[in-house]
Amino acid sequence: GADGADGAPDGRPGADGDAGGEGEEGRGGGRRRRGKRASRGRHVLKTGMKEKPESTFSEQVRKRLEWLNRNSNLQQELEFSKVGDLLIRTGDKKVAMNILKELEDNAPEVRNPNAYVAHRAKLALGEPAKPERAKRAARSGTESEAERQIGWMNEHVPLTAPLEWDRVGSFLRDLDVDAATGILLRLEQSAADVRDPNAYVIAAARRILADSAAPEPGP
Q1: Helix (H, G, I), strand (E, B), or coil: what is residue 74?
Q2: Is 87 helix (H, G, I), strand (E, B) or coil?
Q3: 121-127 contacts: CB < 8 A, separation 24 or more?
């Protein structure tokens, strides 16, 4: 009977010890498995972080529009739904931000900020296609683009006098598109200081035509 009583305690510690060993292994295994799961979790977070820059350009444009609405003396609020997509489609952060900087600098004079930004962005979007135009279409392309821009400026820019296509068209159509629209853009930026917009355009076009013709021998 005593031997049986002694045997029971001997058996219990052994059983407990084995169970404890299994428990340690189980817990150790559990910790290792948790470690693997944690590692996988960190990997997911890193993947998520890589996706974030893709939306940065859009977010920057939106924040810049919101900032201008709060801090610039705009005559109307900018609306992301009207100009955001056009700015983003330029694909160039510098181009988009320069357009908005021009608006900020001329805010008091721009009657319709959304139309101003949209117009600038459309010009930027059209630039890559210009070199591909056939030379024989250059003159008509310049004429249509310049005439469209003059109509827009007469409506949205505070010129001291309206631009008249009948007066300036014959000079602008002899320039390439970039030169003609460049003259009009410079006029727009300094509209308040130009007393005679038509004379300004004609003089600028004549200077460019004279410069381009100077190296060539006379008839």
Answers
A1: coil
A2: helix
A3: 121/83, 121/86, 121/87, 121/89, 121/90, 121/96, 122/86, 123/181, 124/90, 124/92, 124/95, 124/99, 125/86, 125/89, 125/90, 127/178
What are the pLDDT digits (tens) for 115-153? 888 888 888 887 543 444 444 445 556 677 888 899 899
Round to whole Å and give the CA distance between 188 and 181: 10
pTM tops 0.85, yes or no = no
* The token pair that represents 109 in the structure block: 């004079």
Residue ranges in the chain modelled with pLDDT below 70:
1-55, 127-142, 213-219
If one counts every other C-beta atom within 10 angstroms of the C-beta of residue 84, the result is 19
Per the CB < 8 A criterion, the answer to whether 160 and 194 are in contact is yes
Residues 6+ apart with CB under 8 A from 65: 78, 79, 80, 83, 84, 100
The domain ranges of the chain are 40-132, 133-213
Cα 176 from Cα 8, distance rounded (Å): 106
Kindly give the interhelix angle for 56-71 and 80-89, rounded to the nearest 10 degrees: 130
User: How far apart are the C-alpha atoms of 198 and 179, rounded to whole Å?
Assistant: 16
Cα distances (Å, whole numbers) of residue 202 to 9, 17, 135, 180: 113, 102, 23, 10
What is the rounded CA–CA span in Å between residue 73 and residue 32? 61
The answer to whether 191 and 159 have CB atoms below 8 angstroms apart is yes
